Amino acid sequence: MSERKLKPLIVPIFIPNQGCPHRCIFCEQEKITSQPGEAIDRTHVERILDQAIHSKDFDRKRKPEVAFYGGTFTRLTLNLMNELLEAAAHYVKLGFFESIRISTRPDALDENRLEVMKGYGVLTVELGAQSMNEHVLMLSNRGHTADDTVKAVRVLKRHGFRLGIQLMPGLPGDSKERFRSTITKVIKLKPNMVRLYPAIVIRGTELAYLFQKGRYEPLSLEEAVEICAEGCVRLENQGIPVIRIGLMSSPTLLEKGQIVGGPWHTAFGFLVRSHIHHQNMQKDLPGWGVVSQIKIRAPKREISLVRGYKNQGLQLIKRKTGAEVISVEPDDSILPGHVRIEKI
Q1: What is the residue extent of each domain of the chain?
Q2: Per-position DSSP letters for 86-115, written without gaps between them
Q3: pLDDT, tens digit, for every residue of 302-333?
Q4: pLDDT per residue over 144-195, tens digit each?
Q5: Distances in Å between the alpha carbon of 50 and those of 65, 70, 89, 120, 218?
Q6: Count of helix runs (H) and strand runs (E) in the chain
Q7: Helix (H) / strand (E) containing 166
Q8: Is-contact 13 69, C-beta < 8 A?
Q9: Is 325 left (phi over 0), alpha (psi -120 to 50) or beta?
Q10: pLDDT of 113 higher than 50
Q11: Which positions ≥6 away from 341 have C-beta within 8 Å?
Q12: Which 3 state secondary structure label does DSSP give 295?
């Protein structure tokens, strides 16, 4: 049996809102990251990376990366960029990390800074595109266009960077059809990876103000799961991995009253993956009323996806087939994405 593929290890260093020309309608980085918007310097980077490499969970086999998230990295001052990258590159040279990645805006690239980043070992650049619809970008106060994203992709590929694109379904003016179009346009850009973050309403943001005034309606949890599942399937069918679905929780974000609306769930990514799995399983399930009880066999790694969050997947199977699921048992002779049904 082949060894299970290890999940890449990314050690994030957050630079909340630093380098950003303004604050987007949905953004509250200090709460998302549980870090105040204080100045970040070499000492801060060294402290985080020292803690990481001494953690019991640090594993060089997982090809660790240092990642600068939460701001517009390429709009930091050149001096600060050099300071932060030099600090991170030291740990790469020592062999603790494989490379560095950064996130930035599509309209914040310039040739000089890209050359600086390459010199320090930055291999991946993630673009916060959020949408490829001009109306959605305008209403969300992004300050850039879809064409800026297209141009940024060309520049980054010309410089040899691995490319990530971050998308946010459910922003003002968005719809299922518009997000489908966004996915179509992103597929044509052929990024190396995509992240999907459905818009949530965080206290203190302009989005929260619009929501409270009844001028913005966020996606429901069910809508967000369906939209992200469809997008994920389309992207991955084209060989573009979706490496994150849903915001990562943080202590501040989880405080009562911080999230005032939208499809927030601590296991959102799992909900989406389980939804996709159940769509794939449909062809293996018996029709309604054919049997009253069934046993399900599935690959061991997929049993949790069959069961779903708090066994909601089993409840869904019962609603669709009328059959009680007696057990879900591991069977690695079954192909991934399939189940074997035993009628009782």
Answers
A1: 10-199, 284-343
A2: HHHHHHHHTTS-SEEEEEE-TT---HHHHH
A3: 999 999 999 999 999 999 999 999 999 999 99
A4: 999 999 999 999 999 999 999 999 999 999 999 999 999 999 999 999 999 9
A5: 14, 20, 13, 19, 40
A6: 12, 12
A7: strand 162-167
A8: yes
A9: beta
A10: yes
A11: 284, 285, 286, 294, 295, 296, 297
A12: strand
Model confidence at 2, pLDDT cuts 50, 70, 90, reads very low
* Confidence (pLDDT) at 35: 53
Q: Dihedral (C-alpha) 184, 187, 191, 196: value to the nearest 10 degrees?
A: 50
CB neighbour list of residue 7: distance below 8 Å, 6 or more residues apart: 62
Amino acid in the structure at residue 176: K
Q: Which residues pair with 28 in a beta bridge?
A: none
CA-based nearest residue to 196, from 226, 154, 160, 162: 226
Mean pLDDT, rounded, for 2-27:
80
The two three-digit tokens of residue 344, written as one number: 């009782």
Residue 86, token pair as written in the block: 């030099």
pTM recorded for the entire structure:
0.91
CB 153 within 8 A of CB 163: yes
Matching CATH number, 10-199, of 3.80.30.20, 1.10.10.10, 3.90.79.10, 3.30.565.10? 3.80.30.20
Can you read off the two tokens belonging to residue 125? 């650049």
Name the residue with tokens 């996606």.
Answer: 219
Amino acid found at 309: Y
Residue 1 in this model has a pLDDT that exceeds 60: no
CA distance 201 to 218: 8
Q: For 240, phi and psi rounded to 5 degrees? A: -105, 105
* Domain 284-343 -> CATH class: alpha beta
pLDDT of 18 over the 50 cut: yes
205 confidence band (pLDDT: 50, 70, 90): very high
Question: 37 falls in which pLDDT band (50, 70, 90)?
Answer: low
